[in-house]
Amino acid sequence: MSLFVRSARMLTIINAFQVFFFLSSGTIAVLSLLGQSISLPDIFVMTPIRMFFLLILSVVGVGITLYSSWYLKAYLAHHKHIGIYLFLTVLFVFSMMGIILSNEMITFLVLWEIMSLSSYFLVVHEPAKKDVMTQGARYFIITHIGFFALLFAFLPFSLQS
What is the pLDDT of residues 86-103, one digit of tens each? Predict the structure, then answer.
């Protein structure tokens, strides 16, 4: 079986898992709206608005994986780090899902950092291309400025409790 077929199958499995995750979390949100008691960890909360954003992210995630299957064709001849690329893509999408569902500041910030680092490594995935490392360094600095801005924005809330 060719590497492209295996990559396409992996991306299809990831898409199916995203759709399953959205449907199950959407079901939990609907049941909670109907007054059913659902026990979830306190670090995650499912509300209708979060489910809406999760739906948007799932649709974008499907687009990402479809584009990735086309994008990876260039790597198949050289077998360059396809597994790492797939892992980072999955990590990026699921950390964004966790950010949407997070209910605590620490969880939000940890998932934000996972999202930032995984996307940084996706940006610098092709170090042989001109200016990739420079743009990656800029991206790293900008995402961490955002992280510290979020940290300082959360600071007054953590001092109240």
Answer: 788 888 888 988 898 888
The Cα–Cα gap between 139 and 119 comes to 9
Rg of the chain on CA atoms, in Å: 18
What does the block give as tokens for 142?
Answer: 């900008």
Alpha helix ranges (H) inside the chain: 3-33, 48-71, 73-76, 82-101, 105-123, 132-160
The CA distances from residue 32 to 23, 37, 38, 47, in Å, are 14, 6, 7, 8
What is the pLDDT at residue 63? 78
How does DSSP assign 8-22, residue by residue?
HHHHHHHHHHHHHHH
SS3 label, residue 127: coil
Q: Which two tokens stand for residue 144?
A: 């961490």
What is the pTM assigned to this prediction? 0.72
CA distance 158 to 136: 32
**pLDDT at residue 145 is higher than 90:** yes
Which residue carries 């300082």 as its tokens? 152
For the chain, the distance separating the N- and C-terminal CA atoms, rounded to the nearest angstrom, is 57
Q: Per residue in 3-47, pLDDT tens?
A: 555 655 666 666 666 656 655 555 555 555 555 544 456 777 777
Residue 119 near residue 143, CB atoms below 8 Å: yes
